[in-house]
């Protein structure tokens, strides 16, 4: 049996050259960029752009990680674009808060909203869900999440980032429809990941978030980038880095029941830099209900409308 490969590369800060070297090393350790991308491919770079907060908050994937990956893809001959469907505001506002609009414009890299949903049936969840056509039509997807604690799921590491390809406030509705149990909700998240099938996940753990994530937690220096074709194996390894037992994560437990990905540490091959003997223990998030109430959904939609109207008036 072939072991699931997870690459670990230390990255002490967000200096552009340090980040570029880390990403290039991940590709090398994982078999070479040509294993994942062909020249001319349209490549969706899917960062975590959840709310318009600056990089210093560690709420979103760091701008250096997004920009350096875009440069690497351009140098290889691919056609990258950056896109998401944030929980709050929109992609343009989140990109502006990160300061990536001008750098990406200079590179000729579009920034898009993951809207225009197309209904797709999820295999295990047996539901039809609206997924942005931009994600569905991309030749390849590179998943670029931020490592954070999470108030509903303990931690958000690899798989949940692809939930951002579900357009707009439909995500809040699915928290209600599938939030009755962790297993139902996590099965849906895994289904979405499998449907979109990113060629690789590269996790920004240089500065992680601890406490009340995924939006309002606190930055915590971690100094790692993590990558794998197997997102579950990546989540298991990340748990060790931050002092969380994989059994604490509902998503990993659900993956184990579904037989998806590698949940057994003995079957994971770690390549690159050796992990520290003592993990950096992130302060946990105080857990809140996974299932959104109808009142919470309505409040969320109204708040989003207010934010978008306010943004429109500024432009």
The CATH homologous superfamily: LarA, N-terminal domain
CATH class: Alpha Beta
Task: Please state roughly what percent of the residues sit in beta strands, choosing from under 5%, 5-15%, 15-25%, 25-35%, 35-45% or over 45%.
Answer: 15-25%
Task: Work out the number of β strands.
Answer: 12
Your description of this structure?
The chain has 315 residues and is α/β, with parallel strands linked by helices. The chain has one domain: 3-Layer(aba) Sandwich (Rossmann fold), CATH 3.40.50. Helices cover 36% and strands 23% of the residues. Helix 1 crosses helix 2. The mean pLDDT is 94.
Quick tags:
Rossmann fold; 315 residues; alpha/beta; single chain; two-stranded antiparallel sheet
List the helices and strands and how they pair.
Layout: E1 4-10, H1 16-29, E2 42-47, H2 63-76, E3 79-84, H3 91-98, H4 101-107, E4 111-113, E5 117-121, E6 128-132, H5 133-137, E7 140-144, E8 146-150, E9 154-156, H6 170-177, H7 182-196, E10 200-210, E11 218-228, H8 231-241, H9 250-258, E12 268-272, H10 294-314
Parallel strand pairs: 1-12, 2-3, 2-7, 3-4, 7-10, 8-10
Antiparallel strand pairs: 1-11, 5-6, 8-9, 10-11
Helix pairs in contact: 1-2, 7-9
